[in-house]
Write a structure and sequence with these properties.
The chain is 64% helix and 0% strand. By secondary structure, it is mostly helical.
């Protein structure tokens, strides 16, 4: 967080460095397992939800109920 790097990127780099240091697992095996996990329609729900939230707030259609 001190460098402004997202947590997911720092965890990925840490994993790759540990895999290279130990030499026990091939790095390409980790890449082949990560790509199908990221390529999912479920992950599109988060940006779409944030987009709709910003759109409704910007259009002043979102109301606050107290």
């Amino acid at each position: 967080m001190a460098l402004g790097v997202p947590i997911a990127i720092s965890l990925g780099f840490g994993t790759v460095i540990a895999m290279l240091a130990t030499g026990k697992y091939p790095v390409l095996a980790a890449v082949h397992r990560m790509i199908p996990g990221v390529d999912s329609c479920i992950f599109l729900a988060i940006p779409c939800c944030l987009y709709m939230d910003n759109t409704t707030v910007g259009a002043r259609t979102a109301h606050t109920y107290r």
